[in-house]
Amino acid sequence: MQKEQFALWKEGEYHYRMAFGFVPNLTALLHEEKEKRPAVIVVPGGGYRIVSPSEGEIVAKAFYEKGYQVFVCTYTTNLLGLAPLKTQPMQDLSRAVRMIRKNAGKFRVRTDRVILCGFSAGAHLCGSLCVHFEDIEDTNAEFAGISNRPDAAVLSYPVITAGNYAHRDSFTALLGEDASEEELDYMSLERHVKKNTPPCFLWQTATDELVPVENSGLMAKALKEQGIPFACHVFSGGKHGLSLANEAWANGEYGIADTMQQTANLVQAVKDGSFFLPEPGRQQVLDSFDYDEEAGKELLKGNIPNKEAAVWPALADVWVNTVLK
């Protein structure tokens, strides 16, 4: 396996004010053989507050083992809720798709097989690019003529709607407390599915306690109305954030947690005083990210493998190879 990280933005292109030196990036896990393969871009969740390590490398390796070239996208997040993200995460993911297509020879990727795989708010990000890809222009001439339309998307326990079944905290981090009705409508994905929206595979559990299962249903309905190929699997039980739902996930074997770079930079800035945060916020941030091994073990005890939901990667793989013939 060839593993390498690539910055999505060049110097002077990226300006999010709460980045603290972080630049969104792609971590590639590539087969070294010369044949070109389909690509999967894994986009972890985290409520647009963090990029969760439990949905990063562990998922990428599962698709790598199925023969894909795989990339984990670490995009811009808004941990403290102080700087609404607006379209910045979508711009990050759009650039990631274009970068992979531009470097298809180097990455040994088929340009007609670039698939997104997102989780929770990361699935909302993937769905946003699926319905709004035409709106995201790239001012860098290197990428301006390259398509950012995904060929398909896997949306795992997705945040979809800003309406009655919304996961409100995700939209607050994305758009701010005072988001306009127009902004909320734009980010309510089921309202913007069009004939050129890519095929989507959705999965969720009926008992998801954070993102109501109706989110998947609303997206499935919209896709059907537009004649877009889709699959929608609702498993009978399981909590939000199941990731692979297998033993490795339950044991916390997530792989290298390099998805937390922006968060780590923020915590360091609070620690060294270069970013002033008044109490009690300052101590809450420091306490939240002061890792305690025993406490971590206690948290993991709540993770139980879900054999029913754990079949989703196999189902998604079969579906991708069916709709992208």
The biggest beta sheet reads: 8 strands, mixed
The proportion of residues forming helix, as a percent range, comes to 25-40%
Count of helical stretches: 13
Shape: globular
Structural class: alpha/beta
Low-confidence stretches: none
- Along the chain, the helix and strand elements come as EEEHEHHEHHEHHEHEHHHHH
A few lines on this structure:
With 325 residues, the chain is α/β, with parallel strands linked by helices. The protein has helices spanning 57-64, 88-102, 104-107, 121-132, 141-144, 168-175, 181-186, 214-225, 247-250, 261-271, 281-288, 293-300, 312-323; strands spanning 2-7, 25-30, 37-43, 69-74, 109-119, 152-156, 200-205, 230-235.
Describe this structure in words.
Strand 7, helix 8 (214-225) and strand 8 form a beta-alpha-beta unit. With 325 residues, the protein is of the alpha/beta class. 34% of the residues lie in helices and 16% in strands. An eight-stranded mixed sheet has the order 1-2-4-3-5-6-7-8, with helices on both faces. 45% of the residues are buried. The longest helix has 15 residues, at 88-102. It has 13 helices and eight strands. The model has no long low-confidence stretch (mean pLDDT 95). The radius of gyration is 19 Å and the shape is globular. The protein has helices spanning 57-64, 88-102, 104-107, 121-132, 141-144, 168-175, 181-186, 214-225, 247-250, 261-271, 281-288, 293-300, 312-323; strands at 2-7, 25-30, 37-43, 69-74, 109-119, 152-156, 200-205, 230-235.
